[in-house]
Amino acid sequence: MQIMSSITEKPDWDKKVFDEEITSKWRKEIAESGEDVSPKMMDWIIKELQWKSESFKKDGRVKVFDVGVVKSDTAISQELQKALKEAAVPFEDVPEDQKDYHPNSDQQVVDLVHPSLFPVIFGRSRILPDRTINLETCLGSVGQGDLLPVPSKDHIAHTPRYGYGWRATPREYSQKFQWLPCDVEFTEDAGCRIVSYINNAHPVKHRGLYEVVEKIITQAVPLWNETLAYRPYNERRIQYNSIDYEEDVIPEPDGQESDEDDDAYEERWQTYRNSRRFIQPEPAEFTPPNLERWGLINLQEAFAEEGLQVIVKLANIELTPEKPNYAGGSWHIEGQLNERICATAIYYYDSENITESTLAFRQRSEDNFEDVGYEQDCHEFLQAVYGFGPEVDSRNDTNVTQHLGSVVCKEGRLLTFPNVVQHCVSPFSLEDKTKPGHRKILALFLIDPHRRIISTANVPPQQEDWGMERQNLVTDLLANNLPPELQVMVEKDMPASFLTMDEAKAYRLELMEERSVASEVSNAAFETGNFSLCSSWIVTEKLYEQAVYLTKENFDNGVGLPLTAGLFLCHLEEDPAQIAFMRIYYQIPVTGTEDDLAKLAQQVIEPKVCSEREAFKQLMAQDCTAVPHYLGYVEK
């Protein structure tokens, strides 16, 4: 994937992939680079890029990594890029002592518009319980609404976040803060319109920024559609179902000798295991994916009435001859779980006098390999084939993350990715150490449209300077229309619930500290897992037939294609009735009780041990039109 990403950085790559002279040169360069890429892999890479070039020529975007990392250098026009630069000037054109440097950034990161300033503060912010506000009415609502209570622990009860057995921790849900998105509606001409204020961007003074950002959101939506599309689990470039070895370098050890202690015997076996060389799996011939099986997304169609919610961030990284190096960022996922960010868009709109920088991505690997036929407790293939570190074994907690690769952060690029993979900004420096340089970004965080959160349509502005504008206006009106004693009475009743800048910055430090602790806990959970390589699936032929029958019957009855179907699993050592079960998702009714299913399990004459993928193949061979997937298992 990284090689394909690198090739798509080349000018006119969509034409060059069809030029045999150029692709031959690429093959030679990669072969000489020491990369673990076989000729068959290069065949696949070229063919897949040729296929991707067809859509690239139409829309100018390419999916870099299968998890949903999408890039485009043409989505944002040069005219719109220029407009954003101009709209940012009022935020940048301030005296040095008034610049809002992000805390702990060594005065290198300037926050122009940042969601950590004036967020929702539970127990301090106000919310409008019976109405929403828009760009025209938000300033008039300052100080209104009810105090937002601190959510209870029951209210922030959580469910698994990333799957594969990893559960989110309570620290990832904040009982103190929440970033504030603005509401965005779709227009009849397929555009987007911001309808509630961008937190920390004045709806009147900074109106130019609103007009630019809503146009960029419009261009980000097609990329988000691709980022959030579901790709079927079993569409793999390289199928790996069994472990194969080259011819033994040293013979397999004999049995333990009578005078040999256990440690010595185990050492002989470990020496033998370490000597074996794995035969690396190869891809087959490239065939274009069946896009009809992909879970395609169209945000504009799906949420035409509700619209979207987007958190806006505008920031600059500024380097100087005195501070010429940016150290890079840390691995993280955006926001906390109560913010429900599902995808991010970053637009790199201005770069000057800096070295190349990249954004790296990593994912948490699935920690079971039931579809691979391996010897019990054999874990060496995890390093040799899947690229995990040498500390990985089959028993202990270890780092289960896989680095996907990185994407160049070049000026003019719009990049989107889902908020289930971690990302990290790489270090960069001044190109010419005698001159200053910078990189400027616009970041847009898309809230899960299925689970809307408190937005600026619900919370009146909290900024003191915004509130004082309204208060001064009211005071002037009172002076012209009421006697002094009544003016005093009215002014006493005027709510003053806005925050001073000093208060807001103090809350920001508290928010950052909370998220720093949550991030440490989250990273530990994200990184750590245990590859359990000592279980077998026991599935029965009788239960295959029943699973196929139930699934296909409901599909034929027009219920729809199941997203997930479970197989009967039967534990045959003691009680075959204790674990016989079936679950089918996607609102497909299941016929028969667990007792009925247990009776079917008891009819089995001879169990068959098979991998998950073998079970898939057998089901598909029996004309099962659904895609089955295990939902549980019992170790034998």
Describe it for me?
By secondary structure, this protein is an alpha+beta fold. Among the domains are: 1-59, no CATH class; 78-160 and 183-231 and 300-363 and 398-459, Jelly Rolls, CATH 2.60.120; 464-493, no CATH class; 537-605, no CATH class. It is built from 15 helices and 22 strands. It has helices at residues 2-7, 13-16, 20-33, 39-59, 78-92, 207-227, 262-275, 299-302, 380-384, 464-481, 484-493, 501-527, 541-556, 594-602, 612-621; strands at residues 61-65, 69-72, 109-113, 120-121, 126-127, 146-147, 177-178, 182-186, 192-194, 308-319, 325-326, 341-352, 358-364, 398-399, 401-408, 413-418, 422-425, 428-429, 437-447, 528-529, 538-539, 608-609. Residues 159-168, 534-620 and 622-636 have low confidence and may be disordered. Residues 1-29, 40-469 form the DUF4246 domain. InterPro entries: DUF4246, DUF4246_C, DUF4246_N.
